[in-house]
Amino acid sequence: MEPALKGEGVGVVRPARSQFWPTLQNIAMYSLVVEDTGMREPHWHPITAELGYVHRGKARMTILDPDGSTDTYYLAPGDMYFIPAAYPHQIEVLPEGGEDIHFCIFFDQPAPLDVGYKAGAMAMPHEAMAATLGVSRKDMPNLEGALVDPLIVARINDVDPVRVKSSL
Question: Computed from CA positions of residues 20, 44, 121, 149, in that sequence, does the dihedral angle turn out positive or negative?
Answer without folding.
Answer: negative
